[in-house]
Amino acid sequence: MERWGLNLAKIEDLGERLRCFWDAYGWYTQTKTHNTQEYGYHYLSGLLRSNKTRTIAEISRVTGMPYQNMQHYISNSPWSGAQVIKQARTGIGWHPYFATGSMLLGDESADARSGEILAGGGRQYNGRLGKVDRSQVGVFLSIVKEGKHNWIDGELFFPEEWFDEEHRELRQKTGVPEGRIFQTKIELFWQMLQRAQSEGVPFEAVACDGLYGRSFDLRQKMERAGIEFYADVPANTQVYLSEPQIGIFQNKRGPQATKPSVLLPQPHRVEYLRGHPSLFWQTLALRPTERGWLSASFARISVWTVQDDMTVTKQWLLMRKEGRHYSYTFSNAPSTTPLKVMALRKSQRYFIERDHQDSKSEFGWDEIETTSFIAWEHQLAFTILAQWFITQTRLAWEDDDIRDPDLLTDYAVTLLPLLSVANVRELLRAVLPLPVLSPFTAASLVVQHLDNRTRSRKSRLLNYLGPPM
Questions:
Q1: Is residue 253 part of a domain?
Q2: Which of 72, 96, 113, 308 is in Cβ range 3.0-4.6 Å of 136 for a Cys bridge?
Q3: DSSP letters for 216-233
């Protein structure tokens, strides 16, 4: 196992490592009246070790903590999830690995949720299902460098109708902060970018998909903030190949125009430019993967865009071709930036999708059973901490215990697989084994489940029918 960089002594120390990790963040979950750090340690431990459902009830069981106390800690306790997330973001940003060469990635993720009393719940587009359904949507920010990646921030999206008078009672029931106003996903993304920049999180560029990239306002804000961006845009986006001339068109007949418009040249849809004779397509090897090198063809061209207020902007149009699929990206990268650097930065968005997947498959993000805003923030804080514990552990082991380079020759490959999130969780379970259920404990859990279901049914009936006469 030493050849693979696995040190048995460090594996046996994983439990202590987790305790030390929590000590660095746990005191931010204390309240003015209670020291609740121990609940937090066990909740984090349960998220990392549970291999079935990651509900509060299941985590309480595997960690031996009282369910009601744990439920209160996650759903009602007034500690600030945002403060814990900030501390985690600071810790990640200060780590030497992310100090140079990092990027920030933005994207939303939707999860199907049932129930009428649910913070941010509503019929919304769920990309995971590919349809509009009752969902809860979060907008997230990740940091990435050379395959290492971690959520560093997130905001719960509230549909606009949540802020009308009819939803006042629902806002109160779900604990939506009084000062909260409607913000689009783009505005939430920009808010998180501002936080990261003001706190000194190190990053060299930002990448986002077409939902965000098509926003001229967002691109202008990033430009003014000195942020190099790679913003995907739809194939039908219109651009100009020379600087547009703005003026008021003079009609020879009929009423005269009064508003300025583009007089010259003609616009082009970006998808029609991929065969332009001035383009020089290059096939670039982007990064090694376990299936071989990830490669794609890239080309770029300077273009101008014009907004409704006739603001003209010059930027790169970067195109990527992989098989029959093309994608189009606006970037304000300096003119001296090599094409391969732009190609690499544009192609990093895959890793925030990995963060979304890991949050669900490894840390139970899609199993949230709480309904309040504060509980959503608490759950996000613990998910980010769980990710960061795994990322930090992998980085430490890679620095201290180098793999035997002869493994590449032995296996006749050019790349060895990285230690996965699931691998580290498996090792942690070996050090802190999950309890085995006795028949009595299993029966007690079933009774508790039946009791909870009965109480929930009674509550729903009272809501529908009102109190008995």
A1: no
A2: 113
A3: HHHHHHHHHTT--EEEEE
Token pair of 399, please? 């620095």
What is the largest distance, in Å, between two alpha-carbon atoms of the chain? 92
Dihedral over Cα of 283, 287, 288, 294: its sign: negative
The two structure tokens encoding residue 199: 């706190």
- Cα 69 to Cα 63: distance, rounded to the nearest angstrom: 12
Decide: helix, strand or coil at residue 401. Answer: coil
| pLDDT single digits (tens) 253-309 | 777 777 889 999 999 999 999 999 999 999 999 988 777 788 999 999 999 999 989
The residue written with tokens 């020089």 in the block is 280
Average pLDDT of span 19-46: 91
Nearest to 180 by CA among 38, 305, 82, 75: 82
| CA angle (156 as vertex; 153, 161 as ends), nearest 5 | 155
pLDDT band at 453 (very low <50, low <70, confident <90, very high): low
With respect to residue 229, please indicate whether it lies within any of the assigned structural domains. no
Q: What range defines the domain where residue 415 resides?
A: 2-214+353-431
The total number of structural domains that make up the chain:
1
Q: What is the pTM of this model?
A: 0.91
The span from the CA of 182 to the CA of 439, in Å, is 50
